[in-house]
Design a protein that fits this description.
246 residues; alpha/beta; 37% helix; disordered C terminus
């Protein structure tokens, strides 16, 4: 995998007189779990859509493994897995049927797709739920199924946009542990977008503080910093009220 895996240069997005993202420069390296942290409306999702090539920037560029997202969005789609806040599934199909369908869309033969789907359901803790219709899944189960859906095409990068929204606390812990395992065991590069300080602090090794379309700080978190200082003090320097934004 290339270095950097994700590179944003002068990235800007304007809607009329409103600037959603302003001159963003960022490099995310292999095996980083990078937390894009900021309040709702900060421009995090707009940035992600430009990374995916789904929104065209007003200025600047996005490269994923050296590929320009604006000019080659299909090539980027092949190597990036994207999990949005609300995952869409065919609710009248089972969990495993949804995964097989996604796999076949990505050119995987049905027999291999079924095998991969079964292994991934086990990996995300849904081994006993594969024959249940997706419409019967809880919110937490749907997000884990969504993660399996993202992984079935074996991406090099996964982008998670507010993935724990609406999940109960125990489900959040399980999901965060799973992200950490995937990164450490399979070498995945992860972009984790959230407005939850505690979640970003728990799983990320780097954090970008984001507000009003600007990257205010890019912070490397060591284990010692996480234990002794945490991100709380730094977060409070930039956002009045700190945890009130969670």
């Amino acid at each position: 995998m290339c270095q950097p895996v994700i590179e944003l240069t002068g990235l800007t997005k304007k809607y009329g007189d409103f600037t959603a993202v302003n001159d963003l420069n960022l490099r995310i390296n292999k095996k980083d779990i990078f937390g894009l942290l900021g309040p709702n409306g900060a421009g995090k999702s707009t940035t992600i859509l430009m990374m995916l090539g789904l929104t065209e920037p007003t200025a600047g560029s996005v490269k994923v493994c050296g590929i320009n997202s604006t000019t080659h969005p299909i090539d980027v789609k092949r190597i990036v897995g994207y999990l949005p806040e609300d995952v869409g599934f065919y609710d009248d199909m089972t969990g495993i049927e949804n995964l097989v369908y996604t796999a076949q869309l990505n050119g995987i033969r049905k027999k291999e797709a079924k095998k991969k789907a079964g292994l991934l359901l086990e990996r995300v803790g849904l081994a006993n739920e594969g024959k249940k219709k997706a419409g019967k899944y809880s919110r937490g189960m749907r997000q884990r199924l969504g993660l399996a859906d993202v992984l079935i095409k074996e991406p090099e990068v996964i982008i998670l946009d507010e993935p724990t929204s609406g999940i109960d606390p125990s489900g959040v812990r399980e999901f965060m542990d799973l992200i950490h395992q995937l990164s450490s065991e399979e070498g995945l590069t992860v972009l984790f977008s959230s407005h939850h300080l505690d979640q970003v602090q728990q799983v990320c090794n780097r954090v970008g503080l984001f507000c009003k379309g600007k990257l205010l700080a890019d912070i490397e978190l060591t284990e010692q910093q996480k234990r002794e200082h945490g991100l709380d003090d730094i977060y409070n320097r930039y956002f009045e009220g700190g945890k009130d934004h969670e």
